[in-house]
């Protein structure tokens, strides 16, 4: 059966701003309180989606969470009209207001972990929304994200939706940003690599920044998705690189089909990890394990450039391309490495640079913006067609963004109830464009 990988990118929400909420994410903290441009952010994201679609790669769109999250604000004791809730929070708890206005759901690599039907015991595609419990501004996403995923992948005969893991540190789950699948093609059984930052039964953990993914969470997801234990590896991220700002595995490693590109400091006991991957990989096509040395690229340069947060995609006519952030061109060592990579003996033969500065300044590159879903043609036909990128949808969403989004947003604007009203009006219209139904609390 013919399988393909579909990238479902998160549409940037109308309240995109720089609040510096993500401790451990260098870009998020360093750009806190800068002036954001929600309109430009959304248009940059749409341009990336449209470009991949034009390249012949199936491309999907996931709607953002509604912000501000008034349900959470009311649960914290703020009451009265919606406008009063915002006014009270802005005066007495501005940090909570910023969290409830965050547009972080745009980074759909953290939305969920997905296992394709080729890997699951029951032959269905499995979805587990991430609980994201390490950060309050993201822990509030799971409920709405679950609704959006169910509205996008609604056919119960093909898609199984699990509840998020319990909201407890033992089961900290940050989604597909810590999951890679190696296979000789999308439709063949693959080797699932679950990368975690901390095993609660071990003392090996970062000392400066938190580990956001636990081994216990990864094991629970693998069980729920009915993955073959012989084709499932649990790999610990190097605690030292987490403390240098590598908050997710996709900031230090990236895989696609039979290619795995990673830094030499990416994993704890890395030589052992490489040996395990070689031993467990069962594909007929040769496995390309590309280890980037410190001499070629430092961890600091990897974090600054987000080179590993590029998208690695298989091209329709053969070979692979890296969809890299334009920041990679600003660091000579990174640009030189990528040029050499394309000339080396591996399937990667092209680098395409994209301007995603609005997202990058908040700590998310091309790979953060997309959720990878490997689907058979029958499964793809069952996806909500209004969520699949076409020229028509691109034009419609571009007009929608230009109609509803501000081109300037700062922290003081969050106290203005009109921002809430604008956002709700825009998202209500979006659910009609994308045929999602009533997925937002304000619609109920």
TrEMBL record:
Substrate binds at residues 19-28, 110, 137-138, 212, 250, 362. It catalyses: N(2)-succinyl-L-arginine + 2 H2O + 2 H(+) = N(2)-succinyl-L-ornithine + 2 NH4(+) + CO2. Pathway: Amino-acid degradation; L-arginine degradation via AST pathway; L-glutamate and succinate from L-arginine: step 2/5. The active site is at residues 174, 248, 368. InterPro entries: AstB_sf (IPR037031), SuccinylArg_d-Hdrlase_AstB (IPR007079). Keywords: Arginine metabolism, Hydrolase. Pfam families: AstB. Belongs to the succinylarginine dihydrolase family. This is N-succinylarginine dihydrolase.
């Amino acid at each position: 059966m013919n399988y393909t990988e579909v990238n479902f990118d998160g549409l940037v929400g109308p309240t995109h701003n720089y609040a510096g909420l993500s401790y451990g994410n260098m870009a998020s903290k360093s750009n806190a309180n800068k002036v954001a441009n929600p309109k430009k952010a959304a248009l940059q994201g749409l341009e990336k989606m449209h470009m991949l679609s034009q390249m012949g790669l199936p491309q999907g769109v996931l709607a953002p969470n509604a912000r501000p999250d008034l349900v959470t604000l009311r649960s914290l004791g703020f009451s009265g009209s919606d406008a009063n809730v915002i006014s009270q929070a802005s005066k007495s708890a501005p940090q909570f207001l910023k969290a409830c206005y965050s547009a972080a759901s745009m980074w759909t690599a953290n939305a969920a972990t997905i296992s394709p039907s080729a890997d699951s015991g029951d032959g269905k595609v499995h979805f587990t929304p991430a609980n994201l419990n390490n950060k309050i501004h993201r822990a509030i996403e799971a409920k709405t994200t679950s609704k959006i995923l169910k509205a996008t992948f609604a056919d119960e005969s093909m898609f199984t939706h699990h509840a998020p893991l319990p909201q407890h540190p033992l089961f900290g789950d940050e989604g597909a940003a810590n999951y890679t699948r190696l296979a000789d093609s999308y439709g063949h059984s693959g080797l699932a690599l679950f990368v975690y930052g901390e095993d609660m039964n071990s003392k090996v953990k970062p000392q400066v920044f938190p580990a956001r993914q636990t081994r216990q969470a990864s094991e629970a997801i693998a069980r729920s998705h009915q993955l073959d234990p012989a084709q499932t590896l649990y790999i610990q991220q190097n605690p030292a690189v987490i403390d240098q700002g590598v908050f997710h595995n996709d900031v230090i490693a990236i895989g696609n089909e039979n290619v795995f590109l990673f830094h030499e400091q990416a994993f704890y006991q890395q030589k052992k990890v490489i040996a395990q991957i070689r031993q467990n990989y069962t594909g007929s096509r040769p496995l390309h394990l590309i280890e980037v040395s410190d001499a070629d690229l430092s961890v600091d340069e990897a974090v600054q450039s987000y080179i590993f947060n590029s998208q690695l995609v298989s091209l329709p006519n053969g070979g692979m391309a890296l969809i890299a952030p334009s920041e990679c061109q600003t660091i000579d060592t990174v640009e030189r490495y990528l040029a050499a990579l394309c000339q080396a003996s591996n399937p990667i033969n092209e680098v395409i640079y994209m301007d995603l500065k609005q997202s990058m300044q908040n700590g998310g590159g091309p790979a953060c913006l997309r959720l990878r879903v490997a689907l058979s043609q029958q499964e793809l036909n069952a996806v909500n067609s209004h969520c699949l990128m076409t020229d028509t949808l691109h034009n419609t969403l571009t007009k929608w963004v230009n109609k509803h989004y501000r081109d300037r947003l700062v922290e003081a604007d969050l106290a203005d109830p009109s921002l809430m009203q604008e956002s709700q009006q825009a998202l209500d219209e979006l659910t009609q464009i994308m045929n999602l139904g009533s997925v937002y609390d304000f619609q109920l």
